[in-house]
Amino acid sequence: MNWAAFSSIFVFSTFKFMFAPFAGPHLGLPYYGTYLAAFLGGCIGSAVFYFASDFFMDWSHKRKVKKEEQLLDQGIKIPHKKKFTKTNRFIIRLKMKMGKYGICFFAPFLFSVPLGSIVVAKFYGKLKETYPLIVLGMAINATITTFLAYVVFG
Hints:
Low-confidence stretches: none
Number of helices: 7
Number of domains: 1
């Protein structure tokens, strides 16, 4: 097995899971190697960002407060940002229509793995079954995207 190609797909899928398996045929990896690299990379990336989401949300909040304080000290008026962007509306619509299963299966897939995992942790972080649902969603999504990469587009 080509370990450089395997590790490339693994690292790529820790951040952008949706497109990682499509590199497998071009790098000369077999079907199962591409599936395994994408699945493991997605699971490890989602584990890191899911379980460290409190840290990332606190860090982001502190950074925002510090930036606002600096702007106020300089006498610059703080611009107000939209609270409901298209992405936020999409996330809320996905949550309302599909519930925790939709968020757990599709948020890390449609968005990046870090953002999707943090969104899942923000909405359903207190529930014990959410991370196993993310792993199940990764397995299903890796199967579909690897199949598309090798059979349909390969």
